[in-house]
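>> Question from a student workshop board

For tomorrow's exercise we were told to take the sequence and the ligand below, predict the bound structure, and bring the output to class. My setup keeps failing. Could a helper post the expected result so I can at least see what it should look like? The ligand is calcium ion.
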Amino acid sequence: MKRFWKKGFVWILVFLVVASAVAVVRAATITETEWENAITDPGIELIAGTNATLNVTILTSSGDPFALSSYTNADQLEVTAKFIDEYGNALDMDGDGTADIYTLTNTSTPGLWTGIITLGNVTPGEYTLKIEALAKNSTTNTIVDNATMQLSVWIAGGPYWVSVADIKDGDTVEIGSLSFTIRGLSELGAILDLGNLSTKTITDDDRDGIFSWQYDVTGDGANDWIVFTKSDDDSDRYIMMVYSSDANLLDNFNLESDFEVRESDGRVKFTNKVFKDLNNYKAYVVWDESFWAKFGIKAVDYYIIPLKGREHWTEGWGNVERTDIKVIKRVTYLGGLFGSEEEVYSGNIFNKNVNIDDLITVFGKWTGNAARISSGVWEIRKGLGDITIPNSYSLKERDLKALSVSSEDWRGFNPITKPSGRGFFKPNLDWKSILGLEDDEESS
Ligand SMILES: [Ca+2]
Ligand SMILES: [Ca+2]
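>> Workshop helper replied:
Here is what the output should look like for this input. Compare the format with yours to find the bug.
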């Protein structure tokens, strides 16, 4: 929410700048910005250590392309970009101690200016980029025309990125050779207990709600970023993000060892179950093991199904956008002679305690991403979560394909291989679509 408002605020700022520019008699306008070598969906995101190209279209106050030929009273044009602090001062973005101002040059298209935005290993987070165009008269030493624009830009700490939801005091995190236990996590910062009486304290010095630690977690000699931030929703939960330039990050992240925990209410929690690993999607059948189910009298089974396709697994602008699943409830009587099926959940699970019938909880716990710079998006390669079920149920892990052809995962009949149903039980859901089988047919 906070970021939304910040983003909204920046847009209001942009609007005010544009509106005030219109009110002044002579003022140019920046009409369009376009990025190359950057993440552009769902917002502008630059990656530390990567050179992005910024293209800007500018019009003069009289609506002509921002070029010397458009002016009779100007002999000098200047277009610059800089990341600014809250006072409007340019920031040092490559760590050499000097503030950085990027110069844009005119392309062969009049009014289209271009420049390279280079970034060192700056702290990941939200930044404001100010673009400024000036037309000057060097004889009178005056500015005869000008335009400015401010953009909110997220700077990612590297092209590989892991997001972990609901990180809290007492959690132990293992990444590569690094292991730490989190203590005293609050808005002020956190203390990381590294073991052997050694601790690392990280604080939110600039009070932007994000605090981070630069450390080589992958052991390749290049520093990575461990970032903590409060989640965007009202849950008060914290998200931990780790950014790296090392692809091994996604494999080094040791949250994958799955284990079972008996909860205080008697239910069993299965942690770090894989929903997505590249193109391999895994469904979970929550199988009724009750007395009535075993004797085929009445069973209530649930199917937790990750949705296939990039549009269901998206991340960007410093947070997880979507990790989508569907949960189908299938009730059968007399071994499937009678029955019904119903979609009981459809949507995002990341950092969400999805409650199904007060029986099952699904929580999207972590994602592992890689930047696909050429297409301007992040790709969620891995998505894992926790599933909590009653002790009168068992959990079966199935590939979507295997589930669609198996007989042992369905009471009575498999609704994909037998869409006409059996007895008085006629399936009414589009199982092929739910399991993403149509996509397979199209692509094969
Ligand atoms: Ca610098
Ligand atoms: Ca590293």
